[in-house]
Amino acid sequence: IQPAGLGDFVFEDTNNNGIQDAGENGVAGVLVKLQNPDGSAVLDGDGNPITTNTAADGSYSFTGLTPGEYKVMFVAPDGFEFTTANVGGNDSIDSDADPSNGMTQTVTLSSGEFNDTLDAGLIQPAGLGDFVFEDTNNNGIQDAGENGVAGVLVKLQNPDGSAVLDGDGNPITTNTAADGSYSFTGLTPGEYKVMFVAPDGFEFTTANVGGNDSIDSDADPSNGMTQTVTLSSGEFNDTLDAGLIQPNPSIDIEKFTNGVDADTPEEAPEIAVGDTVTWTYEVTNTGNVSFDASEIVVTDDQEGIITNIINQGDGDNILASGETWVYQKTGIAQNLTGSGGGTETFNFTGNSGLDGSEGNIRTFSAGDISVKTSAFSRDSYGVFDQAFLGSFSSGLGVTDASEGNGGNGLHRVDNVYRDNYVLFEFSESVVVDRTLLASVGADSDITYWVGTVNDPFNNHNILSDSFLSSLDFSQDNNTNSSSARWADINNGEVAGNVLVIAAATSESHPNDRFKIKKLEIEQVESGIYQNTGTVEADGATDSDLSHYVNLDLQPGIDIEKFTNGVDADTPGAAAVIAAGDTVTWTYEVTNTGNVSFNASDISVTDDMEGAITHIIDKGDGDNILDAGETWVYQETGIAQNLTAPTGETETFHFTGYSGLDGPDGNIRTFSAGDVSVKASAFSRDHYGNFDEAFLGSFSSGLGVTDASEGNGGNGLHRVDNVYNDNYVLFEFSETVVVDEAFLDSVGADSDITVWVGTADDPFHSHNILSDSFLNDLEFMEDNNTHSSNARWADINNGEVAGNILVIAAATSESHPDDRFKIRKLEVEKVESGIYQNVGTVNALGLTDSDLSSYVNPASDIFGANSNGGYA
Predict the structure, then answer these.
(1) Which of 332, 357, 385 is the last residue of a domain?
(2) Same structural domain, 401 and 494
(3) pLDDT at residue number 313
(4) What Rg do the C-alpha atoms of the chain give, in angstroms?
C-alpha cells in the first residue's frame, strides 16, 4: 500500500462568485485541519491533531496519509468569511468549504492517490457610503464650502430596487451624521444601490454632472435612487452621494435699448425719428430651479410677446441656474416731439421804408422765443436772390430787385414778377400754428415749408431749391378771398426751427399779394418713450424699464483739404511743388454731427477747380455719410509757375581788358547787386559739333575766339556766325527775368538767337552746351535788326524767368554776317508766389471750407505759363 495525500488552495474570491478566477490571489497563513468523516480530528502518532497553514501563495497539502476517507476543515482568518461552496461543475476551481463551518465534503483516497480539489474561497465584507450635501449653487457638484445635511434617511437597496434585509428580515437603513456622512458596512460583496429620502423642503439637485463621480450627486431627482454598484471583496465604495437643494425659483430680466441699460429717463439714449430701435432682454436664472423653455414667457408692455432668442446659452432648452438667454426685438423710433408748451404770437408790424439793403435781417421776439426774418426772390429760371424785407403797419413785405423802390404796392409778398419768400429762423424748435395775412391784394394763396437745420438763429441760411427740398414738410394754403385772414397752416403740427412762407409758387396765373402781420406758434417739448420688459417662469417673475428720447438733431459737416498730402492751411505750411509737376488735392469730408447725409445731399467744390466728383474712399460704401464717417474726394492738376518779377532791376557790365585769345573753356564771373553770373563761350560747326571757346572781356564787352579764328585778330574775337556759330552761356546764382542786352562793337549786323531756361544750380554746376541742352530750355527767340550800330536788344518780351541765358549770333541765317560784343545785360529779380484754393462742402445747406496752398521750390527756375507770363 502506498501513502496517499490531499490539498490545494485557499484564495480570496474578490468577486464573491465562488470560483477561482484568474487574478484572484491565494491567502497565506490560513489554518487547515485534517478531519475524519465524522468531523473528528485525524491524529498523528503522538495523538495530536494533524494541521497545517497555507503557504505564501495560499497552497496547502497533507501527505503520507493512510488510504481511506478524509475531509478538511478550513479556519477563516479574522475579517474573512467563506464564499459560496460548490459553484459550477468544475471541482478543481470551486470552493469546497461549507460557509457555516469551513468543512469540505468527505473524499476517499486510494493507495498512492493525491486529491488536489479541496479548496476554500474567502471573502472580506464590503461597504459603501459617502455624503449628502446642500448644493447651494445648484450646479450638481460638491463645491468647497457646501455643507453636509444631517438626519437624511438612506436605504440600502438591491439592484431591482427592493430593500436589502438584515438577518432578522428588516430593511437595512441609516441616517446621515451631523456632517452629512453615512455608510453601510459588513456587506456581502455584490450589487447594491442606495435610495436617499429628501427631507421636507428639499429636492435633489441635478445628477451626474461633470466627469468626477466622487464630487457629483448620484441621486435621481425623481426618486432619490442611485445607480447600481458592484462591491468586491473588502471594497468600500465612497462615491454614492446626494446633493439637496431648497427650491428657490428666481429669474431676472435686464432690458437694453440700443445697447444702453436705460432704466431711468436720465439714462435714455437719443435715437433719431425713423431710425431702428433694438431692444435686448437678458433673462438670467438667478435661483436654483431650472426652467424649461416652455415655462418662460418674455413680454414687452409696448411690443407684445418677445419670441426671438438670439442666444440660448448652452442650447439644451433648459435655463439652468446661472444661465442667461438673450431675447431681442426691433422697432422704429417714434417722433416724441409734440406741442404742449405755451402759445406765443409774433407781431411783425413796423415803420420801415419801402426799400433798403437787400439781404437785411430783422429780429423779433415773443415770450422767450426769438426769430430772425429775411427775404428772397426767385426768378423763372430758378435763380434765388436776396431781397429787402420791410416791416410795415400791416406786417412784413418784400421788395425785390425787379420792383424798383417798392412803390405802388410792390413792397408786399407777391408772385407777380418774381416769387417772393420770407425766411423765419427760430431760436428753438416750435410748432407753427397759423399766420395773419394782411394788406391783401387780389388773393393770398401761400406755399410754406417747415423743417429743422443746425442752429439757424445763429447760422443764417441762404434760400435755394435744394435748401427748400431738404426741409421736412411743405404744403399750399389757398383761398379765394382778397380780405385779411388767419391762414391755418401746419395741420400736421410738424415741429421745426425753420419756416418759409412764399406767395403761392405753383399758380399758372399768379396774383397773390399780402403782408405777414402775425405768426402764432406753440412751444414744443420732447417726450420720452418708455417700455417695460417682463419675464415670467414657473414660480418667478421680474420686470425692467427702458427708455429712449428723440435725438437732438445737430447736423455737422467738416472738410479738410490737403495738397500733395500736406494740410497746407496757411502759407507757412504750403506744399512745395515744382511747376509742371502733378498736384493732387485731397478733400476729407467728415460728418461731425448726428444727422446722416445721402450722397445726393453732398456737393464738394473748389474755388479754382470747380465741382469735385471723384470719390476715392466712400467709407462703408452704402452711399450714406453717417455720423463720424469720412469720405475722401480727390482732384489732380498741374502745378503752375508761380514766379513773378519784383520790379527790381540789376545791370551787369562785361567790359574788361583781356587778350584776344586764351584757354578755351574759361569762365568769367560778374556781379550786379546781390546777383552773380558765370559766363563761358562755345562754338558750333555746321556738323552740329559744339566745342568750348575762349571768352574775352574787352572794352566793348564779351567776345568769343573759337578754334577756327586763330588768335582772334582782325575782329574775329567777337560773337559771330561767319565761320562757326558763337554762343555765350550765362549761368546765374538765382532766378532772374532777362530784360535786354546791350550789343556793342557791331560789324555788319547784330541779329541774335536767345534761349532762357532752367537748370539745377548752374552757378555751382557748370553746363556744357549741346543741341539737346538748348532744346531742354523753356524759351527760345530770335531778335533781328538791319543796323550795324551798337544797340539795346529788347529780348524775352514774354518775361520768362530762369537761371540760364544763352546768347548766340543768329543761328538760322542763310548769309550769316553777324558780329558783336555783349557789353551789358539788364535783368529783373523775381520772387515765387503762392497758389491758394479753397475746398467747400455743402450738405443740405450746411457748409464748411478749408484753404490749401502750394509754392514752387526755391531752387526751381520756372518757365512761362500758358499765356507766356507769370503764374
Answers:
(1) 332
(2) yes
(3) 95
(4) 57
